[in-house]
Specification:
The chain has one domain: Flavodoxin domain (Rossmann fold, 3-Layer(aba) Sandwich), CATH 3.40.50.360. A hairpin with a 7-residue loop joins strand 4 and strand 5. It has about 210 residues and is α/β, with parallel strands linked by helices. It is globular and about 60 Å long. It contains 6 helices and 7 strands, in the order E-H-E-H-H-E-H-E-E-E-H-E-H.
Length: about 210
């Protein structure tokens, strides 16, 4: 039974373009995958715990030496990683906040990018870092206030969101990443309307691919 993991990170519970498009993606994906399972992770409503000293010590400890408290510190990370591992495809909705990721989505990635769990580290190897997750198709739905921030635009050098996401996903083995982009949200004019129409078409197409 195929499984789709939907990750939403918009601070808006309503009027969110990314939430609207991830919902449309999920609807199209379920229509194309009879019996498919949908798993939803909302990192705004279920804010991931920021990593702290206890988490870091637990993550770097050898598994056989971890105490009950260490296992407890990593329990949330295990849940989030298990969701990613069990999914056949992912769709991530992410608005750009101040040229980068929402803090809640960064906290999510801090939980799932974990040594000897989603990547390995061998300081003696020629390539010391190796990804541990199995690749799968990922659609990232991005919304920005100004379309000039998108790739190819005159302000694209300020877009730290997309390269950051690609780097983090690739570091743990998830390289099959495609973007669906909506620009000009702040302008609320014909450019936004056209961008939304194009994104809706692309979402429907991508939902058919990720099956």
């Amino acid at each position: 039974m195929p499984r789709l993991l939907v990750i939403n990170s918009s601070g808006r519970s309503s009027r969110s373009i990314t939430r609207r498009l991830t919902a449309q993606f999920a609807e199209s994906w379920l229509a194309a995958n009879s019996g498919g399972e949908l798993v939803e992770r909302d990192v705004t409503l279920q804010l991931p715990t920021p990593v702290n000293e206890a988490w870091i010590a637990s993550a770097f400890a050898a598994p056989e030496t971890r105490s009950a408290e260490m296992l407890k510190a990593l329990a949330e990370s295990e849940v989030l990683l298990a969701e990613v591992e069990a999914a056949d495809a992912l769709v991530i909705g992410v608005p750009m906040y101040n040229f980068g990721l929402p803090a809640q989505l960064k906290a999510y990635f801090d939980q799932i990018i974990r040594v000897n769990r989603s990547f390995s580290f061998n300081p003696e190897a020629i390539e010391p870092y190796q990804p541990l997750l199995t690749d799968k198709p990922i659609t990232v739905i991005v919304s920005v206030g100004d379309g000039d921030l998108l790739p190819g635009g005159p302000m694209s050098e300020l877009n730290f969101l997309e390269p950051h996401l690609v780097t983090m996903l690739g570091f743990i083995g998830l390289h099959n990443v495609e973007f669906v982009r909506v620009g000009y949200e702040e302008y609320q004019d014909g450019r936004l309307k056209r961008a939304l129409e194009a994104a809706e078409q692309e979402v429907a197409k991508r939902a058919m691919i990720e099956q």
